[in-house]
Write a structure and sequence with these properties.
Elements: E1 19-25, E2 28-40, E3 46-50, E4 56-57, H1 64-73, H2 80-86, H3 94-105, H4 124-132, H5 145-158, H6 171-184, E5 191-193, E6 199-201, E7 203-204, H7 205-217, H8 223-233, H9 235-238, H10 244-251, E8 256-260, E9 264-268, E10 274-279, H11 287-297, H12 303-309, E11 312-315, E12 318-325
Antiparallel strand pairs: 1-2, 1-12, 2-3, 2-10, 4-7, 5-6, 8-9, 9-10, 11-12
Length: 327
């Protein structure tokens, strides 16, 4: 910790959750983002707790490292960029889509086998370029297509049914369930369906932070360590060239970072310190400022932290305010 006093935040009398970020326009506070957050010390103990990090949440795509580890445990031989893409919420850039196609072709599959919903590239700039070229929503451009390609590939390898690979009762999804529980050190609290159609396992934020810590501290050659190493070596395949997860993993060596929809974020540092938080209203615009403040509390001192934390508000063409952390 770099602060001599434990951080605190204003609590909402209705939800009981603290304000993690506020929206300030022209010097006037026009909104708040509440949520819960946990920071773990290097030994895995809880260092900072705000809100209710013991309550279960859907980590959304922050669960992807565990899903990728399950694919490895099931016997698929993935490494490098392919393994990073298996744990990705990719931006839909050309190099992402090219590799998804290769991963499918290598196992006798095609984009038609994907059960992701047709979508545009996740990155707004990529989406504009994609539409300007006359393309329409496709399954392969959905940000989870790398994960789904890996799931389909391991089904082909093991002779498992590819038509039902997203069924919670499918052997692959049962293995994912076990890997999630082992990494988090707690039972899955609920099972839902993610935006991509895959089963989604609920964890506490403490469990999510613990899972990320498990991945960076795992022994060499374990599935968990292989996933962490691939993500950290190829962060542009995990996210994209204009994404905070990429910036953080590239510029702070040894860091594992993965955001999830509905404003979830999990990070583990090389020495086992870790964090996880969720903005209760699901607004991703507060992710950067809250993440930057949390990293600062973990003692991360790098230019990328300020870059991630910058969230200006515009009035016309001028900057008139910001979203800023309050703890």
């Amino acid at each position: 910790m770099t602060s001599s006093a434990a951080p605190s935040a204003i609590s909402d009398p209705v939800s009981g959750l603290p304000v993690l970020a506020e929206v300030v326009r022209s010097g006037f506070v026009e909104g708040h983002h509440r949520g819960s957050l946990v920071l773990l010390a290097a030994d895995g103990s809880v260092d900072v707790s705000l809100g209710d990090p013991s309550a279960p949440v859907f980590p959304r795509s922050s669960n992807k490292p565990m899903q990728a580890a399950a694919v490895l445990r099931a016997g698929l031989d993935l490494s490098g960029e392919r393994l990073a893409l298996a744990a990705a919420s990719h931006s839909g850039e050309g190099f992402h889509l090219d590799l998804v196609r290769k991963m499918l072709t290598e196992h006798g599959l095609s984009p038609d086998d994907l059960q992701t919903p047709p979508d545009l590239p996740l990155d707004p700039a990529e989406a504009e370029t994609y539409l300007a070229a006359g393309h329409v929503r496709e399954r392969i451009t959905m940000n989870c297509s790398g994960k789904h390609a890996a799931m389909l590939a391991v089904c082909v390898r093991n002779g498992w049914d590819t038509a039902t690979y997203l069924d919670p009762a499918h052997p692959l999804q049962q293995l994912v369930h076990r890997v999630v529980e082992e990494a988090a050190g707690e039972p899955v609290a609920a099972v839902g369906t993610d935006g991509c159609g895959a089963p989604l396992m609920a964890l506490s934020l403490v469990g999510l932070a613990r899972a990320f810590r498990t991945f960076v501290t795992a022994e060499q050659d374990t599935a968990e360590r292989r996933v962490a190493d691939a993500m950290r070596a190829h962060p542009e395949y995990v996210a994209g060239t204009r994404r905070p997860d990429t910036w953080l993993m590239r510029e702070v060596p040894g860091t594992l970072s993965k955001m999830g929809a509905e404003a979830v974020q999990a990070v583990a540092l090389a020495d086992g310190r870790a964090l996880a938080f969720k903005i209760d209203d699901g607004s991703t615009r507060a992710l950067g400022p809250v993440l930057a403040r949390a990293l600062g509390l973990l003692g991360v001192d790098a230019p990328v932290v300020s870059r991630i934390g910058r969230a200006p508000l515009m009035g016309g063409s001028a900057e008139v305010g910001e979203i800023r952390a309050t703890f």
